[in-house]
Design brief:
The complex is a heterotrimer of chains A (153), B (173) and C (112). Chain A is mainly α. Chain A contains five helices and no strands. The radius of gyration of chain A is 19 Å and the shape is elongated. In chain A, 39% of the residues are buried. Chain B folds into two domains: 74 residues; 54 residues, no CATH class. Chain B is 73% helix and 0% strand.
C-alpha cells in the first residue's frame, strides 16, 4: 500500500535528486542568510545573498515539481513579501531625513569588525536581499505556472 | 598573462555560442563565458563581483534552458546574404579602428587615476564603520544608485508577471 | 592596452549576433555577451598592479587597493542584466506561443 510520501509522486526528478535536495536545501538557505548578514564584513552583500536565497527555492521547485514549492510559497505571498522589501528599503532612506538629509546613516557606528556595526548598512542589506530574492523567485513561478497551464489545455 | 588567456578563451566560446546551430549547445557555451568572467573577476581582485556573477550566471542559465528546451528551428539562408555580412563586418572594422584611437587616451592598464576613490578609501572605515569598502560605497556613499537599481528590478518583475499572465477570464455562467 | 582591445572584440562578437542572426534566442545570447564584455571593461579600468582587494583586513593599513568605485557600479549592473534577460526571454516565450516560430523574418509577415 503506497503511502503519500514525498518521494513517491511522479512529478519532479528521480529519487537520488530528491534525497540530495532534502539534505542540502536548508544549508543553501542558511548560507544565503549568512552572506546577507555579514555583508559589511566580508565580500557578498545584499544582492549576492538574495540571489542565493532565490536559488534555494528554485532548487526545491526543480527537484520536487511545482506543487510542493507553491504550497510552501504561494504567489500572493511572494508579491507581498517583495513589496515589503522595497518599502523597507525606502523607509530606511526616509529615516535618514530625520538626521538631516536623504539616506543619511543615522544609527550608531560600533567598533569595526563586529557584527552590529556600520549603522544602517546591515538593515539595508536585509531589505535588499528580501526584495531581490523573492522577486527572482516570483519570476520563476510565473515561468513555471505558464508552462503547466499551457500543457493542461 | 592569465588575463590574456582567459579573454582568448572567452572570445572562442562566444564565437562558438553565436555560430552553432543547436540552441542548447549555444546556451551552454554562453554559460562557459559567464564562468570564465567570474574567474576574471577573481584575478582582478574583486571578490564581491565574483560571487554575484557566479550565482547570477546560474540563475540566467536555468531561465534560458527552460525557454529553449525542445524548441529547435532549421534555418534557411535567403537573399542578399553576402552584401549584408560584408557591410556588417565593415561597420565593425571601422568601429574597432576608432575605438583603438580612443583607447590610446585612457591611462595605461594598471595605473588608475583614482581621484574620487581616494577620498572613499581614506574615510570609508571611519565615516561608515563598515570594513567592506564596496558595501560602504553602494549602501552609504552612493545609496541613491541602489534605490534606482531596486526600482529597475521591481519594474522587470512587474513586467514579467504582466506578460506571462494566463490569457482570458472565466465567464460567469 | 591589448586587454582593452580584446574586451572590445568580445563586444563586437555580441554586436554581430544581435545584428545578423535570424533566431530570436541567438539575438538574446548576443545581448548577454555584450553585457559581459562591458562589465569586464569597467572592472579592467580600475585595476592596479599589485593591489589588494578593497576589504580592510585586521592589523593592516589602507595601502594600495584597487579602485572600488567601478566595482560598485558593476555590482548593480550584473543584477540589472539578469532582470533584463529574464524579461526578454519571457517576451520570446510569448512570441513562440503566438506564431509557432523563433524566426524574425516570419514574425514580420504574419499580421492580425
Amino acid at each position: 500500500m503506497k503511502q503519500a510520501m514525498p518521494g513517491n509522486s511522479k512529478a519532479g526528478m528521480s529519487l537520488i535528486v530528491k534525497t540530495i535536495t532534502r539534505l542540502t536545501v536548508g544549508l543553501i538557505l542558511l548560507f544565503g542568510i549568512y552572506i546577507v548578514l555579514h555583508g559589511h564584513l566580508s565580500p557578498g552583500g545584499g544582492f549576492a545573498g538574495g540571489v542565493i536565497i532565490a536559488l534555494s527555492f528554485v532548487h526545491l521547485m526543480l527537484a520536487f515539481g511545482k506543487d510542493v514549492a507553491v504550497r510552501k510559497f504561494p504567489k500572493d505571498m511572494a508579491s507581498n513579501l517583495e513589496s515589503l522589501g522595497a518599502l523597507m528599503f525606502l523607509s530606511i532612506a526616509l529615516l535618514g531625513l530625520l538626521g538631516g538629509s536623504f539616506f543619511l546613516n543615522i544609527l550608531g557606528k560600533g567598533k569595526p569588525f563586529s557584527l552590529f556595526s556600520a549603522g544602517t548598512i546591515p538593515l539595508s542589506n536585509i531589505a535588499i536581499s528580501l526584495k531581490v530574492g523573492v522577486g527572482l523567485f516570483a519570476i520563476f513561478l510565473a515561468l513555471v505556472i505558464l508552462e503547466k497551464a499551457k500543457k493542461e489545455e | 598573462m592569465e588575463l590574456h588567456l582567459l579573454l582568448l578563451f572567452m572570445i572562442f566560446a562566444a564565437v562558438v555560442a553565436v555560430e552553432v546551430k543547436d540552441l542548447l549547445s549555444s546556451v551552454i557555451a554562453v554559460g562557459s563565458v559567464g564562468f570564465a568572467l567570474c574567474l576574471a573577476f577573481l584575478i582582478l581582485k574583486a571578490p564581491d563581483l565574483a560571487i554575484t556573477q557566479l550565482v547570477v550566471e546560474i540563475l540566467c542559465l536555468i531561465i534560458l534552458i527552460r525557454a529553449t528546451l525542445k524548441k529547435d528551428l532549421p534555418l534557411v539562408i535567403e537573399g542578399r546574404w553576402v552584401f549584408n555580412t560584408l557591410s556588417t563586418l565593415t561597420f565593425i572594422g571601422v568601429f574597432l579602428f576608432f575605438a583603438y584611437l580612443a583607447l590610446k587616451e585612457l591611462p595605461a592598464f594598471g595605473h588608475p587615476l583614482m581621484s574620487v576613490a581616494k577620498r572613499y578609501l581614506d574615510e570609508g572605515v571611519s565615516k561608515t564603520g563598515a570594513v567592506n569598502i564596496v558595501s560602504a560605497i553602494i549602501l552609504d556613499f552612493r545609496a541613491y544608485d541602489t534605490l534606482g537599481e531596486a526600482t529597475v528590478l521591481f519594474t522587470s518583475v512587474i513586467g514579467i508577471m504582466a506578460i506571462l499572465r494566463r490569457p482570458g477570464r472565466r465567464k460567469i455562467e | 592596452m591589448t586587454l582593452y582591445l580584446l574586451c572590445l572584440v568580445l563586444f563586437c562578437i555580441g554586436l554581430y549576433a544581435v545584428l545578423r542572426k535570424r533566431n530570436l534566442v541567438k539575438i538574446i545570447i548576443g545581448l548577454g555577451i555584450i553585457e559581459y564584455a562591458m562589465n569586464l571593461f569597467f572592472v579592467l579600468l580600475g585595476y592596479r598592479f599589485h593591489g589588494r582587494a578593497p576589504i580592510v583586513a585586521q592589523g593592516q593599513d589602507i595601502l594600495d587597493m584597487v579602485d572600488p568605485l567601478p566595482q560598485a557600479l558593476v555590482l548593480t549592473s550584473i543584477v540589472i542584466g539578469l532582470g533584463v534577460t529574464a524579461l526578454v526571454i519571457s517576451i520570446a516565450i510569448r512570441i513562440y506561443e503566438k506564431y509557432g516560430t523563433f524566426d524574425i523574418t516570419k514574425i514580420k509577415r504574419l499580421k492580425g
